[in-house]
Amino acid sequence: MQQNLVLHLLNQSFSNQLQIKVKYQSKDKLTEVYGFVSEFINNQVRLKSTDKIYLISIEQIKNIS
Fold first, then answer.
1. Cβ count near 5 (within 10 Å)
2. Among 11, 26, 29, 35, which residue is least crowded by beta carbons within 10 Å?
3. What is the percent of the chain with per-residue pLDDT over 90, rounded to a whole number?
4. Phi and psi (nearest 5°) for 52?
5. Residues 8 and 40: beta-carbon distance below 8 Å
6. How big is the CA angle at 63 (ends 34 and 15), to the nearest 5 degrees?
């Protein structure tokens, strides 16, 4: 997924408080998280799920739906 599209979808989720599913590369595995974008920090996004807060590097994101 292209970087500018990733940023666009993250911004839409943040602005409209829409829940999204993010697939990102974590070490040697693909991880899937459902949550809301709560904050952008440098080149990372903070995603709040029901039970945890994730800090994900934007470069690691492979897909958003």
1. 11
2. 29
3. 94
4. -160, 160
5. no
6. 60
